[in-house]
Design a protein that fits this description.
By secondary structure, the protein is of the alpha+beta class. Helices cover about 20% and strands about 45% of the residues.
Length: about 190
């Protein structure tokens, strides 16, 4: 599956929530995510801009392979491949991944408010050390761009990429950290 999404930086949560509700979006939930990003021993996945993510909000847990789709020159994110399955137990799945030879290269925590309107999802993401941003996702870039315009955003100003891409925008290389949480950020 390919994800179609854009991120818009430095949003104000109460203002954005009011606009979303005014446009008919419904609040889906609030999440406190705990995730680990895993890599293989030789780092082959990361060389191909891929990784495995294990994420839980305490109720639902998913195991996901993600891979950034890059431009021909390898410099620009142009999309994201994602293969995701639900798993029953965060700790046991992490134990399984480690037994298969994967290791944790980054542990992260963030908060998310999710709204939806039709087949468009609006995630208001709060991460440690950077301003809150909005991620708009749907099954096509046209739907994402239209939703952005409805909210008053210029789609050409949206960012393609991961939370790491957003950190980079603010001058922070999230790969320099082994832990990113609201309590502390630990450099490698």
């Amino acid at each position: 599956m390919e994800e179609f999404e854009l991120k818009f930086l430095d949003v104000k949560i109460p203002v954005l929530e009011k606009i979303l509700v005014g446009l008919g979006a419904q609040k889906v939930g609030e999440y406190n995510y705990h995730r680990v990003l895993l890599e293989d021993p030789g780092g082959e996945m990361r060389k191909k801009h891929g990784w495995v993510r294990l994420r839980t909000d305490g109720k639902e847990t998913t195991l996901t392979y993600k891979q950034s789709i890059k431009s021909e020159d390898g410099e620009k994110n142009i999309g994201m491949k994602e293969i995701e399955v639900g798993v029953e137990n965060y700790e046991k799945t992490l134990e399984l991944m480690k037994a298969l030879g994967l290791s944790v290269w980054l542990e992260e925590r963030n908060k998310r408010l999710r709204y939806a309107k039709g087949d468009v999802v609006f995630d208001i993401d709060s991460w440690p050390g950077i301003p809150t941003y909005l991620e708009i996702e749907s099954d096509s870039y046209e739907k994402v761009k239209e939703a952005a315009r409805e909210l008053g955003f210029d789609p050409s100003e949206g960012i393609l990429g991961t939370a790491g891409t957003v950190y980079k925008h603010y001058g922070i290389n999230h790969n320099d950290y082994s832990l990113i949480s609201f309590e502390k950020m630990v450099k490698r």
